[in-house]
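job 3f2a | input accepted
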Amino acid sequence: QVQLVESGGGLVQAGGSLRLSCAASGSIFRDDVMGWYRQAPGKQRELVAKISSTGRTKYTDSDSVKGRFSISRDNAKNTVYLQMNSLKPEDTGVYYCNVGGSMITRGAYWGQGTQVTVSS
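job 3f2a | predicted structure (120 res):
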């Protein structure tokens, strides 16, 4: 069993920044892939970014977060972070932490989600 606790969401004006955190506990292995997905209202959940235990990263194929978002992790703390800069209203949604799987597949474990709202 894996527990994921997310924090850092909130309301921010366009151009602002937020840093999301996700702390994992339970049956997590150091080589587990960790990542972030997001779901905007009326849309499917989509990948934002993933990171392996060795620091290899993968971002969404679209250019939507390129140069603005950065994923990192602290293996000692089993925590993954998502630094979001230059936020846009289209970044609004629920952000979910995900653990397991691979760099191209979703993991089995999900956090409860944290709301990010970007006002224009």
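job 3f2a | The radius of gyration is 13 Å.
job 3f2a | closed
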